[in-house]
Amino acid sequence: MDIHEYQAKEILKEFSIKISNGKLAYTSQEALDAAKNLGGNIFAIKAQVHAGGRGLGGGVKIAKSLSEVENIAKNMLGMYLTTPQTTKKGKLVRKIYIEQGLNIKREFYLSLAFDRKQENIAIIASKDGGVSIEEVAHRSPELIKKINIDPQIGLCNFHILNLIGFFNFDKDLSRKFIEILKKLYQIYIQKDATLIEINPLILNDNDEFYALDAKMSFDDNALFRHPEILALKDEGEEEPSEIEAKKNRLNYIKLNGDIGCIVNGAGLAMATMDVIENVGGKSANFLDVGGSASPESVAKAFELILKDPNVKVVFVNIFGGIVRCDRIASGILEAAKSINLNTSIVIRLDGTNAKEAMGMLKDANLKNLHIAFNLFDGAKLAVSLARS
């Protein structure tokens, strides 16, 4: 689960990490009032959306007067912000964060993230902050340091000394940096985070560290332990179909292709998507109906997929192990009653009650129904139908 910058900064503040004073605004008048209350001559106006690279898309602006604050707020609120991490349509900006400007002496990058390959926690640091870490890695890889931490051992002094040597901090800055690093690690472990990114971590004229930006993500499977984090969830930033799927206990993720997939089992779902890709197609979604699929949940899966205007074909790939194939067939027939199934459907059923399921579907005389006898042929047929 992702949270907004202003929410992440409240967590940092809770752990005594310095942040600039800021206020949330939903209208240009609220933005103007916030700037007046904050005081000062320079303000940063930041779009609050769940996406990185906001500055590149015009989602971070600097105002040097109250009138500029108001004008920038008017233009930013209601815009669709497009960044490298959004779709082409972009994300609607519903709220903005008004922040006091700070004098910046140096900028750094600092993050803690889950390293799936190493199966541990990675600290990634850079001497060049305020820009995309991918850009720095491509342009100047020598400016980046990565240190892996075994969570069973935790953050140790040798990890810290390694980073201090990399940054070449003096004694006073080292002490301040150690304090910040330990607190960030504490947040990461205590809150079951999967990502904490400070970009930039700045040093001001008084040689104090401030988190000028903050990004945090948390493990969905651990949210039951953290009602305070779950309370920060912004459903307006999530795909509506994914929210609806969760309510119906469907494992669904929307993608950008045109072949809708209904599969049972996460492994088979991934394999199905890979085969579609290998034969030249693009999946419109990941959808695992699970082992306890009912006719109602399958019908709901069809409803979710067919709401996507990009979907040209639905590929149903079911192996009847725990779930029976006749349940899937009943779900398809249930969907046919409530939804106008004009979209082509490719069905591959194998396993428990597969013959009975095929008989049910043939007897129903559904139009646009195509039968496949294996995964590869089904994927090829789905791609061919999508192209035609």
Please characterize this protein's 3D structure.
It is elongated and about 80 Å long. The model has no long low-confidence stretch (mean pLDDT 89). It has 388 residues and is α+β, with helices and mostly antiparallel strands. The strands form 5 sheets. Strands 7, 8, 9, 10, 11 and 12 form a 6-stranded antiparallel beta sheet that branches. Strands 1-6-2-3 form a 4-stranded antiparallel beta sheet, covered by helices on one side. The protein is built from 13 helices and 18 strands. Helix 11 packs parallel to helix 12. The chain has helices at residues 5-14, 28-38, 66-76, 133-139, 157-167, 171-190, 227-230, 240-247, 266-278, 295-306, 325-338, 354-364, 375-387, and strands at 22-25, 43-47, 60-63, 80-81, 91-92, 96-100, 106-115, 120-126, 144-149, 193-203, 209-211, 215-218, 251-254, 259-263, 285-288, 313-320, 344-351, 369-371. It folds into 3 domains: 1-20 and 103-238, ATP-grasp fold, B domain (D-amino Acid Aminotransferase, Chain A, domain 1, 2-Layer Sandwich); 21-101, ATP-grasp fold, A domain (Dna Ligase, domain 1), CATH 3.30.1490.20; 239-387, Succinyl-CoA synthetase domains (Rossmann fold). A hairpin with a 4-residue loop joins strand 7 (106-115) and strand 8 (120-126). The chain is 37% helix and 24% strand.
Kindly state the number of beta strands.
18
Query: What's the level 1 CATH class of the largest domain?
Result: Alpha Beta
What percent of residues adopt helix (DSSP H or I)? 25-40%
Instruction: Please tally the helical runs, counting DSSP H or I stretches of 4 or more residues.
Output: 13
| Low-pLDDT windows of residues | none
User: Residue-averaged pLDDT, rounded?
Assistant: 89
Rg value:
25 Å
Shape: elongated
Secondary structural class? alpha+beta
